[in-house]
User: Which sequence fits this backbone?
């Protein structure tokens, strides 16, 4: 059979995205493009080169270098601020000749220096400082600083606010349902009742704890030459205090200075950060699977979206697709983050290029996490609680009161009350493998010979009221 002739989708314009993050799910991850895309990398490289040039001239590091005026500094920084589609295309055109991305950035910036007299007048010194662009730098001096700034921006300005908003949303639901009694399931079996709010509070607390770690993570940087020795620096300008110049520049960028590196910054900070983000992802995955299970059990009712289809053949269904989508994307994100963490901490001797390719996947790693966060947030907004179902389930499981009754018997025995022998075994015989009614439990309590006040307290207990201080524990979220 002859294959039909088809339109080659690779030739369609505008280009069709290969992956879902830049196609179907673009809206959920678009803010990351400003930080973790290839264009963002090149813009940040220009930023680092501009700031290095300004730093060298401002601190009289290189003898004979002019001090730039405020107007000249503003001109250079405007190159970064206006970096857009035309500049992206120009840089790509230069790179086709250089076949080297960082060298293309150097030539791009030198073009802007040469054009400065047209903007600032013929007396500007910028046209004469071209050789200070990329001075004494290896490509990794620029790249490591660029990636640190990009990842810091992506985390602090995009991912962390979204992840925090989700944790706050879970915390708000915990407070809303703090008093809602619910049968707990341990090993899938009826267990000591809790409240829905307390169980959500556990997840909110776990998420917030990881967020605190991530907010405190460091972003390291270095600028010390081809093998981290300041070799070219001290030969070119032996009188400069190059470690201090390096440290003050890295700190000027808002990063933590790494004084000891090979050609590359060691990337340990990235491994630490990605492990923390992956741990947040895994806790969120736990939340998604728990909520999915609560939906399956009928604890949560999903609010139908007008016009939406749950199943192509079963019209009654409202599928928990937000949480299923989140699970899959969290697993993809963690796989990428784990690979980044494992790969980036190793570099053969003084340099190899595995980190260069690996770091280009930072964007997808955060993108899948962002997509999951978006799905969980939207899914949580479409839930309602079936309080009547929870009440029925509790009333059908009076045997869970075997725990407090045998505990009260133990306490009475310690206080000297006779007839309290073998409390666990007696409750086990009463309850194991059986469904009890309220009357069954109260009759058993009445025949134990407990002090009257204890017996009254136990007879007043129901599965719905046997929640300990679960409701009050939710307030610990704000400690």
Assistant:
């Amino acid at each position: 059979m002859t294959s039909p002739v088809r339109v080659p989708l690779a030739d369609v314009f505008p280009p069709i995205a290969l992956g879902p993050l830049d196609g179907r799910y673009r809206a959920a991850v678009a803010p990351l493009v400003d930080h973790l895309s290839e264009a963002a990398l090149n813009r940040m490289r220009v930023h680092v080169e501009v700031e290095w040039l300004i730093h060298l001239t401002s601190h009289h590091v290189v003898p004979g270098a002019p001090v730039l005026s405020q107007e000249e500094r503003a001109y250079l920084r405007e190159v970064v601020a206006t970096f857009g589609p035309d500049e992206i295309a120009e840089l790509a055109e230069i790179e086709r000749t250089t076949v080297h991305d960082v060298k293309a950035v150097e030539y791009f910036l030198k073009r802007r220096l040469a054009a400065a007299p047209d903007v600032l007048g013929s007396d500007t010194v910028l046209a004469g400082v071209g050789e200070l662009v990329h001075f004494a730098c290896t490509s990794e001096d620029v790249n490591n600083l660029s990636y640190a700034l990009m990842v810091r921006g992506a985390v602090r300005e995009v991912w962390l606010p979204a992840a925090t908003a989700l944790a706050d949303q879970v915390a708000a639901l915990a407070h809303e349902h703090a008093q809602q009694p619910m049968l707990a399931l341990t090993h899938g079996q009826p267990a000591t009742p809790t409240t829905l709010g307390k169980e959500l509070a556990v997840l909110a607390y776990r998420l917030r704890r990881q967020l605190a770690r991530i907010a405190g993570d460091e972003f390291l940087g270095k600028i010390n030459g081809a093998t981290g020795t300041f070799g070219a620096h001290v030969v070119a300008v032996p009188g400069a205090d190059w470690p201090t110049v390096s440290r003050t520049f890295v700190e000027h960028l808002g990063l933590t200075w790494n004084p000891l590196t090979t050609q590359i910054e060691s990337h340990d900070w990235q491994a630490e950060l990605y492990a923390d983000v992956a741990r947040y992802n895994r806790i969120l995955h736990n939340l998604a699977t728990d909520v999915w299970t609560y939906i399956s059990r009928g604890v949560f009712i999903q609010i139908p979206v007008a016009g939406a289809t749950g199943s192509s053949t079963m019209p009654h269904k409202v599928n928990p697709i937000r949480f299923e989508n989140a699970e899959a994307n969290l697993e993809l994100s963690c796989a990428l983050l784990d690979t980044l963490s494992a790969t980036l901490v190793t570099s053969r001797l003084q340099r190899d290029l595995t980190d260069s390719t690996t770091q280009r996947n930072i964007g997808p790693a955060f993108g899948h996490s962002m997509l999951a966060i978006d799905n969980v947030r939207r899914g949580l907004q479409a839930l309602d609680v079936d309080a009547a179902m929870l009440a029925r389930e509790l009333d059908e499981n009076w045997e869970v009161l075997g725990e407090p009754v045998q505990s009260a018997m133990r306490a009475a025995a310690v206080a000297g009350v006779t007839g309290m022998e073998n409390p666990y075994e007696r409750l086990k015989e009463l309850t194991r493998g059986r469904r009890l009614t309220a009357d069954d439990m109260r009759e058993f309590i009445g025949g134990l010979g407990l002090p009257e006040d204890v017996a009254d307290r136990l007879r007043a207990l129901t599965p719905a009221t046997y929640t300990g201080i679960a409701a009050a524990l939710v307030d610990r979220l704000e400690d």
About this structure: Residues 139-304+318-388 form a domain with the Fumarase C; Chain A, domain 2 fold (CATH 1.20.200.10).
